[in-house]
Amino acid sequence: MTLARDIATFVANAEPAQAARGIMAQSLYDWMACGMAGVSEPVAAIMRAQALDDGGTAQASMFGGGHVPARAAALVNGTISHALDYDDTHFAHIGHLSVGVLPAVMAAAPKDGLAALEAACIGFEVATRVGLWLGRGHYQAGFHQTATAGAFGATAAVARLKGLDAGQVAHAFGLAATKAAGLKSQFGTMGKPMNAGLAAECGVVCADLAARGFVSNPDGLDGPQGFGPTHAGEANMAAWDGLGEVWQMAEVSHKLHACCHGLHATIEALTPLKAEAEAVKAITITTHPRWLTVCNQPAPDTGLGAKFSYAHVAGMVLHGWNTADIASFSDACAQDAALVAFRDKVRVVADEGLAETEARVALDLKDGPQREGHHDLMAAQDPDQKWQALRRKGAALVGEHEAQLWQAVQTERAPDLDALSELMQMEPFRSGPV
Fold this sequence. Notes:
Elements: H1 2-13, H2 18-38, H3 42-54, E1 60-61, E2 67-68, H4 70-82, H5 98-107, H6 113-140, H7 148-161, H8 166-179, H9 191-211, H10 227-230, H11 264-270, E3 280-287, H12 303-306, H13 310-318, H14 331-334, H15 337-342, E4 346-350, E5 358-365, E6 371-376, H16 383-398, H17 402-409, H18 417-424
Parallel strand pairs: 3-4
Antiparallel strand pairs: 1-2, 3-5, 5-6
Helix pairs in contact: 1-8, 2-4, 2-6, 2-16, 2-17, 3-4, 4-5, 4-9, 5-6, 5-7, 5-9, 6-7, 7-8, 7-9, 8-9, 17-18
């Protein structure tokens, strides 16, 4: 029961570092922009209609308007904010943090912006550490850590907001262990974004039940027949080193291209080479083996599938398509004759010596020497430049509402939760190109 007790004590008592809160402000801004723009996606209309049909006490806002029970809002908003697959990624955690944790935080209807920011930091940290503890074995077995590890992060965040003591947090975690779920087999379908919603919903439900006195097995995470042992977890205990002192969540990476994060290093490595597509005889993309089961669809026929295809995205870059523009990833793009033909020139190979944030590319030209490129997404970036990039993305996603979003999030004080809730109520719209 040591692990459960240590996590529960952290959730109940931790004080996030200033740097962690700064990263969280960026993630909150980015998540809101993704959710506000995601309302235009077909899966958003389905999820919202389901929640409204179910009815119940109006407790929390949905992206696109309307108020529904907290658990429904968490499910809907988690799904909508991940619908564009344009949200942040934590590579060590092997998943997306914001879309599982922040919908749960907002659904819990906090009144204090600083408390909400700190609870979100704690949720991010727990999700990250659980993801590290479960390890790549869990992910390679087919589990989607955005949903599974994310469910524990969402539970931690809401438990903190509700003021649960360590004992109650442990029971909430035990309950989350029997409820957390999500499979990678849903990638490329509406089921993938719903995995994020399931994590957020789990957090709201489990923390609420624990607050009401619900009792579970607090060893449900790592005990006999617990979540880790039954879900191919590696039980990497080093994942918990420095808990409360070192904030692993600060390594979260924010997307600047509208496709799977596993493709971004390849895009960044290809872009400076400035090769004409017609001049390319063959391309070799070298990536970490993790990504071969995530974003290596060889022949996608939908825009959603194109977001998970090295071969197709490489063709997009060299044919001059704007990979930062959500509109680029359409069914028409996936079926474009030139891009479909170009896929045959692309070879994807794995190299365990690369970090998961790295990619190498080699272009064999019909005439001229080979061109090579390399990029690592974790290369240091100036904080001001990072905010500028995020705000450019935000402006493209939410148009004229970007200034309101920026003002509501701020960077030197707590976010304005009422203003964020009002922005979530906006009617669906589609913005221009990024």
